[in-house]
Amino acid sequence: MATIKYLLLFFSLLTASAVHAQEEEAILWSPEYRLSWDDFKGAPPSSGSVAATTASGISYYFSSTETNGKMEVDFTVRTYFYPQKSWYKADICNAVILSHEQLHFDIAEMFARKMRQQLTDTRFTSNIKAEVRVIYEQINRELADFQSQYDRETDFSRNVAQQKAWNAAIKEALGY
């Protein structure tokens, strides 16, 4: 019986940079926890019209065992918010903008769930490390596209009716 163990931890921020959870503060997504402006600890840029930025992403790790040619996989997929990389401009932010930023975090969780399902449904080979990486990269591309669509359709929270519609749809999708 051959045993293959991997421990991979990847984070995808909206800026597409990688970070390690051990090196910085991170808030694990939970249906009970709602972001507050106190969670946004990064320094806002001195110029520009952007009101706030949420840095969030998906992490995963897995271990696998090959038994009689079949890969058995144990995995964990989590969604994190990164306070030090998230910021807001207090003089122009309000509750609607905060709900917009919360939804970016919630959308990341929606795609973490999609990744969990794909990992559950996939029959892996001995090339599992590369196969999991392909799933992760595809999920992150889809997540980035979805986040862009969300920003476009809500006009970055300025379209309050669309913002409310997105809030309701994502809340329903996440089942809370």
Question: How does this structure look, described?
Answer:
The structure is a single chain. The chain has about 180 residues and is an alpha+beta fold. The protein has one domain. The protein is about 40% helix and about 20% strand. A 4-stranded antiparallel beta sheet has the order 1-4-5-2. Helix 1 packs antiparallel against helix 2 and helix 1 runs parallel beside helix 3. The longest helix is centred in the middle third of the chain and has 27 residues. The N terminus is likely disordered.
Question: In summary, what is this structure?
Answer:
This protein has three helices and six strands, in the order ββββββααα. With 176 residues, the protein is α+β, with helices and mostly antiparallel strands.
Descriptive tags:
single chain, two-stranded antiparallel sheet, alpha+beta, 176 residues, elongated
Backbone shape: elongated
Q: Biggest β-sheet, characterized?
A: 4 strands, antiparallel
Q: H/E element string? A: EEEEEEHHH
> How much strand?
15-25%
| Total number of domains | 1
How would you name the oligomeric state of the polypeptide chains in this document?
A: single chain
Q: Give the number of DSSP strands.
A: 6
Strand order of the largest sheet: 1-4-5-2
> What's the helix count?
3
Q: What is the residue-mean pLDDT, rounded to a whole number?
A: 88
Low-confidence stretches: 1-21
Percent helix, as a range, is 25-40%
**Gyration radius from CA atoms, angstroms:** 18 Å
Q: What would you call the structural class?
A: alpha+beta
